[in-house]
Amino acid sequence: MMGWVRGRISRLLFELDPTSIAFISIPLFVFSFFLIYPLSEMLVIAFTRDGAPSLSWFMDILSSRFYIDPMGQGSFLEYSPEYNLLYIQGRDHGVILNSLMVAASVSGIAGLFGLLVAFTLARYEFPGKSIFRVLSMTPLLLSPFVNVFVIKKLFEPFGLLNWLLHDVLRVLPFRVYFDGLAAVVLVQSLTFYPIVVLNTYSALVNMDPTMEEQGENLGARGLGLFLRVTLPLSFPGLLAGALLVFIFSLEDLGAPIVFHGNPLTRKLISFQVYSRFISETGARSPEIAALSLILLACAIAVFIVIRNYVSLRPYATVSRGVRWKPRERRLGPIGLAAAYLMLPPLVFSSLPQIGVVALALSERWAGLLPEGLTLWNLVQIFVNPRVSRFLVNSLAYAVISIAIIISLSLMSSYAASRLRFRWISLLDALVTSPIAIPGIAIAIAYFYFFSNHFRGSPLDPINVLQFNPAPILVLGYSLRRLPFAARSIFAGLQQVHVNLEEAAMNLGAGRLRTIVKVTAPLISLNILSGALTSFVYVVGEVSLSIIIGVLNMEYAPMTAYMRDVWLSAVGSLQIAAALGLLLMLMQLSVILITTVGLKQRYAFLGV
Amino acid sequence: MVEVRLEGVTKSFGKVVAVDGATLTVRDGELFTLLGPSGCGKTTLLRIIAGLEHPDAGRVYFGDRDVTSMKAYERRAVMVFQNYALWPHMKIYDNVAFGLRLMRLKREEISKRVRRALEMVRLEGFEDRYPNQLSGGEQQRVALARAIVVEPEVLLLDEPLSNLDAKLRVEMREELKRIQRELKTTTIYVTHDQEEALSISDRVAVMNRGRIHQVGTPHEVYDEPVDPFVASFIGRASTVEGVLIGVEEGLALVDSGGMRFKGRLLEKAQAGSRVVAIFRPEDLRLGSGGEGLNEFEGIVDTVMFLGAHFHVRVLVDGTELLARVEPRMVPDKGSSIRLSIDPKLVKVLPAPHHNP
Lengths: 607, 356
What we know:
The complex is a heterodimer of chains A (607) and B (356).
Chain A lengths: L1 H14 L2 H29 L1 E2 L2 E2 L2 H8 L13 E4 L4 E4 L6 H29 E2 L3 H9 L8 H10 L4 H9 L6 E4 L1 H26 L3 H9 L4 H30 L2 H5 L4 H4 L2 H11 L6 H25 L18 E2 L2 H9 L1 H18 L1 E3 L6 E3 L2 H8 L1 H34 L5 H9 L6 H15 L16 H26 L2 H9 L4 H12 L1 H16 L3 H5 L10 H10 L5 H25 L10
Parallel strand pairs in A: 4-6, 5-7
Antiparallel strand pairs in A: 1-2, 3-4, 8-9
Chain B lengths: L3 E10 L2 E11 L4 E5 L6 H9 L6 E6 L2 E2 L10 E4 L11 H11 L4 H14 L15 H13 L5 E5 L7 H18 L2 E6 L2 H7 L2 E6 L2 E6 L1 H6 L4 H6 L4 E11 L2 E5 L4 E6 L8 E6 L5 E2 L7 E12 L4 E7 L2 E7 L10 E6 L5 E4 L6
Parallel strand pairs in B: 3-8, 3-9, 6-7, 7-8, 13-20
Antiparallel strand pairs in B: 1-2, 1-4, 4-5, 9-10, 11-12, 11-14, 12-13, 14-20, 15-19, 16-17, 16-19, 17-18
Helix pairs in contact in B: 2-3, 2-4, 3-4
């Protein structure tokens, strides 16, 4: 027994050295102290009433018809003969059920359409395919709030679509007006379905073609083959995509904020947390904590399902490493017609991005289309100090965040892929967990955390006059966007043969020197692409920016300015669109640099 | 430079025991080979000596120093990897100079020693190239230069020739032998190729399933195998199981059911116990022998052409014997022939309790 213990200890000491200890403990410390601890503190607040442990905040929420109303109120749609208008807004089932139903509908719609698009792209060859591909990825270009606004404008009773479908083409016998929850479902489906396309597409092209060929060989074909072989094998990818969409829908603030004129749109968890927080600033309300936790719990539950289910993936790609030609076929006339039927919705889902560009270059948008071509808005971003300030803030935060992101993800990815400890994969799980944690929950938790432990200091959000959100934003951005860089660096480390590092250690190089001289240069492309990707997602971050960042506008980032157009009627819509355009251009250049220049995969994700 | 001593070294990965109680001594300055089939634990043992793995039990000594818990970069045991592990982002010069720079040597000293090492492996003038501009054999030699340039106490070679084609392999192994003789560095060489092992080693350890079966000179392991595994793994051999009838005039009399023959008993065995007899193909002769030889009559089952000679598989009362035959003497398949062998060349060992 003693010998066994001594053996264990000497093996542990053998694996440990100052570098490996630092590489494990620094990320562990940062994530425990700045992610797990604030969230658990929020947990304690939510479970305490008058200084005693209590379930009452949750009981209040769960028993209130405002939050849960299984019967529902209102009518799903109404027809007004007076205006010949079909008004669709959805029924009100209370805040929590509304959020879950919206998220479920969005993942259902996005899942179905995404599967259709992914399958067409992965298995068929037809003229114009590259246009399909580009269109299906366009909605992933970030332009928070402004893209939602464009969809809103397009769908107005007298907007472009009704004009086209009702007035010109006469396909619709009446005008259609989406509002309330239906509008949120519409906007989110259009925005998020490419996440399903990406995941399903990669599952389809990574599938060993002999699987389908064997099926055909045994007599299966067409729909039968698809349902019995293709769909089951690509299902993990499809499900992962749909569940990610579910999480993104739950935590989305863009659609509810832009449509918040309708009371029904306000009855979503994310908006409730946000609006109460804003209206009760300064109050450390346990009810908001409880509500944030409900949001967090839903997202994490879904994430656990993804992690468990997606681990089945290797099954479908048994003969990895062998190069194969993916199965692609030409489409017959009927198939071609079916494929082109997808084109209108694809074009349509790209309209918001096109609209943002048009809006950014226009003077006004009063009628069907934006009018008056101008570069004034774009110039304003750079010359008007009241706007450029936000841009400068965003860029500064992004640069600092990237430094933190890259160093932390280098440490954690190295530890996870190189150090041989039994529980080391938990570290990897911990640093990638922010994908599943709604930004709103982190923002609220930080509010409690910093107002409690840094009371009266410039880091205290309640200390309104002196509050400086910059450090908190940088910290939050870093943790939220770290998974992208960590994935990229981890993938790079898996490509580097361990022998290359062992050879250096063998010649007398310690671990740190080995990493600096051998490992890091070999994964420099992954580091660079991880840094560029995080840059885009830091600049486009919404939740923390509009919850913590707006508490002192002096230090607010550009997404806070973009939100302001809707909530505090400050600022110009066109300038917000110009900022959106700038963000999309940054993202496009990063995509180009990483995929064409660095030959790396660009990790799309995140809102 | 130093003697390497292993005492009861054991290492398992999960439920798989990779190395099981390995005890051996590698003498100062010798070229010592760990030989065994793939998966026998020889590479793991080498990595333990290099400090890349920590054994679950047992100790590793370099001379009098216990290095078991010393990290790879604290020992002076340098490994040449099977895949060479040359750093693709560094020029050949920088690859070779890496270890010297860590020693904080002067610039001129480094450049002198790098040049000498490259000369030794016959790669003068390759300093400014990158590894991917070199052929496999050249890369192999750079890997060797990178290791020997730091004058390690122990040089570890992990199947260094396995990625080379057959002709180059033979050339390189002579080179290796020459360089090792010049440097007199204690060298531990891992291979699964018995020909390679026998041709270059001072001594060989034959391993299987994590255990060391025999340690000895190439001649010893070939001529005096301690068990059927060693006998069958090194060189070709036919094994015949039987019962020991008795010992007469120093020779064992064995009955295998169909055959009755004499052989040399390599280890003590009781009369009546089960034994295994080992016949090397090159020791079996076609035709009747002279006085005192074992003789068998059998039917030619298969004739295999091996280039310089033939192997003939002969069935003697259901037992297979493999015999080496010169081309001009090849019998017809199905014909009945006579084989003979000197009893001193038949090795008789106690049968293992269970087959290895």
